[in-house]
Amino acid sequence: MAELSITPAPPYYAAIFTSRRASDHEGYADMADRMMQLAHLQPGFLGVESVREGAIGITVSYWDSLEAIELWSRHVEHREAQRRGRQDWYEAYEIRVARVERARSFGRSEQ
Amino acid sequence: MAELSITPAPPYYAAIFTSRRASDHEGYADMADRMMQLAHLQPGFLGVESVREGAIGITVSYWDSLEAIELWSRHVEHREAQRRGRQDWYEAYEIRVARVERARSFGRSEQ
Question: Is the minimum CB–CB distance between B11 and chain A shorter than 8 Å?
């Protein structure tokens, strides 16, 4: 799961989700796995990158339009995960929706 | 260092740097610390969030303009770090420059 995403040429959209977890992790891992699965099935989904180091996590998901992000944010299971997140799992988070305008990649030939 | 950034109301810009490290880490930590210090001194710098989990890292830095990102990318010490990165430290990376159009935050009152 923790891999780099291959995305098309810009423009496209990114949802940058940064969070600080609370001490209550019960049910968190299952929810996170389920949200990953669901996101991949959403229309307009292009990829996701997610890492956590201690309490701080960054998940960046990529989408072909603002409408795709909007639809995903309103998905009924995602809504419930958001509610549980605010209630139990997160001390703080920020979601930034951004339009990717340029991208540049590097990969060694031996990969 | 691994904390959430407080950023102004959109619009502003994000540089999303995702990487997969190579096995050679020599000098990497010092460079990463130095780049963090330098970034904070750059004109137009708004904040940075950075986490690593195993080989995969995500660093998102926030800037008040595209020009600020451009200047930072051309900083002479940053250029040298980029060169060493491609030569030694990274197997692959992607840099995406994006315009943040919306942001929403959550923080518990007990913080």
Answer: no
Count CB pairs under 8 A between chains A and B.
142
Q: Sketch out chain A's domains with CATH numbers.
A: 21-100 (3.30.70.100)
- Pairwise CB contact (< 8 Å): B107 & A100: no
CB contact under 8 Å between A99 and B101, yes or no, is yes
Q: Cα-flanking dihedrals φ and ψ of residue A29, to 5°?
A: -65, -40
Looking at the whole model, is its pTM more than 0.80?
Answer: yes
Looking at residue B25, its pLDDT comes to 86
**Residue A72 in contact with residue A78, Cβ under 8 Å?**
yes
Closest CA to A5 of A28, A36, A43: A36
pLDDT digits (tens, 9 = 90+) for B22-47: 998 899 999 999 999 999 999 999 99
Question: Which residues pair with residue B49 across a beta bridge?
Answer: B60
